[in-house]
Specification:
- By secondary structure, the chain is of the alpha/beta class.
- It has one domain: Rossmann fold.
- It has eleven helices and twelve strands.
- It has an eight-stranded mixed β-sheet, with helices on both faces. Strands 2-1-4-5 form a four-stranded antiparallel β-sheet.
- The radius of gyration is 20 Å and the shape is globular.
């Protein structure tokens, strides 16, 4: 891995207007980094802000505040041609492998377009690059796969095409937004193994977005737990699974099939977090079994409790 981070996000804020001068803030001062060849697993339930962070990283959404540093360059507020050039560094693989592909185009056409648009390797023909990409993601024989349309492939094969398309521009990092959640259980492991091989062989950094702690641990070097747009806890994968510190992390573990900590869910409510700008206190306070007055009035800072393990909680375990 490189000495410095490949990607560094500092105090990222994303908000959306909801009328009458009010805004919701699904991403609220989030900071993290990703190194070359590293997978950071971003975990949280639906609505926690995971996909919004991913879209901000690839600049499908412009942040309201904060910075996104790729090397020494802040890409948080670039526009126009600068965003197009940035696409060579940052790519995204979406949740739905069919919805992200054009049903009227062949697989060959899907891969040829980004290769011709960005032309990162002019010494190799487009046809050869397409063959190499299909082989790299395990779609063989390539001569047959090239001619097919998305509806002629299985869900897992379509997701491999989506990954190949992301690789076509030789990116530095990839945001994988729940890439296995819509696939059959029997083929999910194959996609995760492919991503792990790409991380190792191509030294690509990944932000792996999921609601599943089991897959987060399997592929992630580190795990970051998100709730209500804020980071609740972050640590190396094995450390976080073995020694969960935040009540919300323990809640997620309790709800994970096959986990030894399964049992009654330790929460006092199932209401959604308050995402309005100007909110105060911990976003998990209305569901937390350890809640106290300070939790409702003061936002807990993210504090390192041991080497590489940080938690935002007034009452950590």
């Amino acid at each position: 891995m490189s000495k410095g981070p490949l990607l560094e996000v500092k105090d990222l804020v994303v908000h959306f207007p909801i009328g009458k001068g009010q805004f919701v803030r699904p991403v609220d001062h989030v900071s993290f980094s990703i190194n070359e060849g590293e997978v950071l697993s971003l975990v949280g339930e639906s609505g926690s802000g995971k996909s919004t962070i991913g879209k901000a990283l690839v600049r499908m959404i412009e942040p309201a505040e904060g910075s996104i540093l790729v090397g020494d360059r802040d890409v948080a507020h670039i526009r126009g041609r600068e965003i197009m050039a940035y696409r060579r560094d940052a790519q995204m693989v979406f949740q739905d492998p069919f919805g992200s592909l054009n049903p009227t185009r062949t697989i060959e056409q899907h891969l040829a377009f980004p290769i011709r648009k960005h032309r990162t390797n002019r010494s190799v023909s487009v046809d050869k690059q397409i063959d190499e990409l299909l082989e790299k993601v395990g779609l063989t024989p390539v001569s047959e796969t090239r001619r097919k349309f998305p509806h002629e492939l299985s869900g897992g094969q379509r997701q491999r095409v989506a990954i190949a398309r992301a690789l076509a521009v030789n990116p530095k990092f990839i945001v994988a937004d729940e890439p296995i959640s819509m696939l059959d259980v029997s083929i999910r492991a194959g996609i995760l193994r492919l991503m792990n091989d790409l991380r190792r062989d191509l030294n690509i950094g990944f932000l792996y977005i999921t609601h599943d702690l089991a897959s987060a641990r399997y592929i992630g070097n580190r795990i970051m737990v998100l709730y209500g747009g804020k980071v609740m806890e972050t640590a190396e994968s094995g450390e976080l699974i073995k020694y969960p510190t935040h009540p919300y992390t323990r809640l997620l573990l309790t709800a994970t099939p096959g986990n030894r900590q399964r049992g009654p869910l330790p929460e006092t409510s199932n209401s959604a977090p308050n995402l309005l700008e100007g909110r105060v206190g911990c976003p998990f306070a209305n569901r937390c079994p350890l809640v106290s007055d300070v939790c409702r009035t003061q936002d807990p800072p993210l504090v390192e409790t041991s080497a590489g393990h940080s938690v935002a909680c007034h009452h950590p375990a």
